[in-house]
Amino acid sequence: MFSDTFNCVPATAGHKGALATGWRAARRTRISSQTDGNAETTGTWQIQYLYDAECPLRSSEVVALRRLDNNKGRISFVDISDEDYDPSMYGGITYADAMGPPAAILKSGEVVRSVEVYRKLYEAVGLGFVWAATKLPLVGPVVDWVFDVWCRNRLRLTGRPSLEEILQQKSKR
């Protein structure tokens, strides 16, 4: 699932520079919701993925999904950690809400959460079969439970501060 590496760039204007996470220090390009290319401006997207660009795993997933999308604009990537992120433009999903289980918005306006987000993302790029087993009656509940445990512990497991600390830091900016 989290199968790609970071796009390494020097810390210069427009880039956040080094991201120290406890288990990895990497330099990456911030992928901004405001500069997502033509997917948002032309409305060709099938799903808007609200992700935390400060999370090394979700950022890696975005890099992989962008590659799989092959510039077709089927996925609009929305960085919730961008200071210009406006919840009113994305189903009212606040930064704090989006920091829990992953969230995405379908073209119809329906909000999907948790494992269903990944099912929809991979369906959008033609690889729905990757997550198809998670729909099975015996497999689905187990995957949902494991994923919920992961989501509750994601920040700690990636060496990041608690959500409360992150929210305090954001309020000081």
Description of the molecule:
One of its GO terms (molecular function) is protein-disulfide reductase activity. By secondary structure, the chain is α+β, with helices and mostly antiparallel strands. The chain has one domain (31-172). The protein is built from seven helices and six strands, in the order ββαβαβαββαααα. The strands form two sheets. A four-stranded mixed sheet has the order 4-3-5-6. Strands 1-2 form a two-stranded antiparallel sheet. Strand 3 (47-51), helix 2 (56-69) and strand 4 form a beta-alpha-beta unit. The longest helix has 19 residues, at 139-157. Mean pLDDT is 79; it is low at 1-41.
Provide a compact summary of the structure.
InterPro entries: DCC1-like, DCC1_Trx. By secondary structure, the protein is of the alpha+beta class.
List the main descriptive attributes of the protein structure presented here:
two-stranded antiparallel sheet; 7 helices; single chain; DCC1-like; DCC1_Trx; 6 strands; 173 residues; Thiol-disulfide oxidoreductase DCC; disordered N terminus; protein-disulfide reductase activity; 4-stranded mixed beta sheet; alpha+beta; 38% helix
Q: What does the secondary structure layout of this molecule look like, with pairings?
A:
Elements: E1 17-20, E2 25-28, H1 38-42, E3 47-51, H2 56-69, E4 75-79, H3 95-98, E5 103-106, E6 111-113, H4 115-124, H5 129-132, H6 139-157, H7 163-172
Parallel strand pairs: 3-4
Antiparallel strand pairs: 1-2, 3-5, 5-6
Protein name: Thiol-disulfide oxidoreductase DCC
GO molecular function, one term: protein-disulfide reductase activity
Pfam families: DCC1-like (PF04134)
